[in-house]
Amino acid sequence: MSRFFNLIDEAWIPVRFSNGRYEELGIKATLLQASKIAAVEDQSPLVVASIHRLLLAVLYRALKGPADIEHAKELFKTGLPVEKIEGYLKNWHDRFWLFDDQYPFFQIPLLELKIRKAWTVLSAENNADNAKVLFDHVNVERPGTISPAAASRGLVATQTYSVGGGNTELLYTSGAPSATAAMVIPIGASLNDTLLFSLVPQNRNIVIADLPIWEREPETIPDLKDSNIAKRIPVGYADLYTWRIRSVLLQENEDKSIMKLAFASGVKCSPSQFPDPMLAYRIDEKNGKLPLQFKQKGLWREFDSLLPDNDGLAPLVVEHAIALTKTFPKRYPRSLMALGQANDKAKIEFWRMERFVFPKEMSGDKTTKSFIRDMLKEANDAQLALWKATHRYATCIISRGDRVPAKKDISDFVSQMPCTSLYWSVLEAKFNDALQSIRNGSDQDKIELAWLRQVKHALLESWNSHKASISLGDAWSIRALVKAEGSINEGVSAVDELLDEFATNRQKEGA
């Protein structure tokens, strides 16, 4: 195999420059032009997150830190040091060849397996016939080929996001350390700021031993077949961000394209208390500290979990971004981007990117998180009225003939009603409007008053939409509707009470 396609020099990272121009760059050009680049952009959120983690791993090693907040602040003040980055990439240039006999990037040399898989195994969007995505027409038996650039993006994404489940010719597969978690990235005015926001300091002793995948010798095939050896605990962030969860070896065609590859289990990440800086956590009564995950309901409904307070559960990258910009308020993060996927065992259900306005008040006002949490609670409380109404309606419809319906029948009926999804869809855009108002420094009472009005509007709109779908000639449906509507009226009354309370308080204050 001849050396071909070096990820340091070749174009494979999709970026958008501040002037709107799109281009693909290598690692070196991306880092050296970071102040001119607005963002890394790709149609796959998994690729975007994975590339950020790869670039951060390079920076941790090139900068030998940051080992403390003072070093981080100095970097934020002066920018990414060109000479250190160039020197590091020059020293490790030979470890970034996509095709190489000794050190193929992020791969296992001489990985001889009986079965070669299609390139689609690198992509959650095109993975397998039993987990097909709507409008994915790629035939995994005849998938065609992809370019080395596309293979590079797929390679880093599959190492970051592969989920466990299934035997291979080596061992049973395990999931990547943060494969099913919602990864959070504070977004700055340029890629330079975005990367520095996420370059969380770590202990100096850890920095020394924290080796990314290209600074490690590839695992041997015998080691990868031994379950006692093919597992370990992360050393540091660079190690974590470049974890080899799969053993891969790309097969090069004569035209330098890729159709097939060897693909099997890699190195299992042993459970540890090592936190991923990009993740928010929650406390589970049985399992303790667990990462926040994407669910069908949308991450915005748990937005308060992304904001720091004294519980130590918010993403470290968010806390770090706030700390860096206290003396540089004009460079405060413009937004928070959350990326990831949701799975049911080994099957990927969806992948997603959500973007939120990041309120500036988080840098100095510890009550902002509580304020946002209260807003979300008000929305959930009102939605409970909608839940009661839909369940009452479904129960009445299914119990026709005085039969007692099964709980599953009721829940299945409710799940196909559009009320709840419409309710949250209406509120999602309004929530970002509220975040923008907080960022702009608007009065919190006015923000919450507007929010409560939107909650009431969403509740009524979602129920009225359901009412409009009911046939007026069906007496049984009308009867069920009347019975259910009492819950909606109770919910509206509860919101009205809060609105009246606000009006009374503002009159007393002379507002």
Describe this structure in words.
This protein is of the alpha+beta class and 511 residues long. Strand 9 (246-252) and strand 10 form a beta hairpin. The strands form 6 sheets. It has a 3-stranded antiparallel sheet. The chain has a 3-stranded antiparallel sheet with strand order 6-10-9, covered by helices on one side. The chain folds into 2 domains: 4-358, no CATH class; 363-509, Orthogonal Bundle (Topoisomerase I, Chain A, domain 4), CATH 1.10.132. The protein has helices spanning 27-32, 45-63, 69-78, 82-91, 148-161, 191-197, 204-209, 221-224, 237-241, 316-324, 368-398, 407-415, 419-439, 444-468, 475-509; strands spanning 4-6, 13-17, 22-25, 37-40, 97-99, 117-118, 183-187, 231-232, 246-252, 258-265, 268-269, 281-284, 288-291, 335-344, 347-357.
Total number of strands? 15
Radius of gyration: 26 Å
Which percent range fits the helix content? 40-55%
What's the main sheet like?
3 strands, antiparallel
Strand percentage: 5-15%
Topology as H/E string?
A: EEEHEHHHEEHEHHHEHEEEEEHEEHHHHH
Catalogue the unreliable spans. Answer: none
Secondary structure class reads: alpha+beta
Strand order of the largest sheet: 3-2-4
Number of helices: 15
Cα-to-Cα separation, first versus last residue: 76 Å
What form results from the Cα inertia axes?
globular
User: Please, what is the average pLDDT?
Assistant: 90
Number of domains: 2
